[in-house]
Write a structure and sequence with these properties.
By secondary structure, this protein is mainly β. It is 0% helix and 64% strand. The chain is built from no helices and nine strands.
């Protein structure tokens, strides 16, 4: 397995709509301070101890690829959130990639957390990431 290592920071912005939808945006910032073009976006709602997708995912906002068979579920405990997202991305040439994303937050306190994540494309690991997050207001 090959790959590259990138170093940088993650910025995670979270907002809640009046209807209770949680919108999260993830940005990767390189050591030189520039942001990557990719923005991770999730729209979620909480039901009990579950985190579910709010609305319908039909297009990837970064690539404009069609999204099919989307599923998204998270489990919430007192100090952790674990999320699994599965879908098929349909390319402009109609090729289909199976994608699986996982995100795990472990809250060290109400101001600090450790996050790990992975992205698989067609069952091959594309990205593995980890970061320590701290709340900034």
């Amino acid at each position: 397995m090959g790959g590259i290592t990138q170093r940088g920071k993650m910025i995670i912005e979270v907002e809640t709509t009046p209807e209770g939808t949680i919108i999260q945006r993830n940005f990767f910032v390189r050591p030189d301070g520039t942001k990557s073009d990719y923005v991770g976006i999730a729209q979620m709602r909480i039901e009990g101890n579950r985190l579910l997708w709010a609305g319908e995912a039909v297009e990837d906002p970064n690539t404009a690829e069609e999204i099919r068979n989307h599923s998204f579920e998270g489990i919430i405990t007192d100090d952790q959130i674990y999320i699994v997202e599965l879908y098929e991305a349909v390319g402009k040439d109609r090729t289909i990639e199976r994608r699986r994303n996982t995100t795990h937050y472990y809250f060290l306190s109400d101001k600090e957390a450790v996050m790990t994540g992975s992205v698989y494309v067609n069952d091959e690991l594309l990205v593995f990431a980890s970061t320590r997050l701290r709340r900034v207001r």
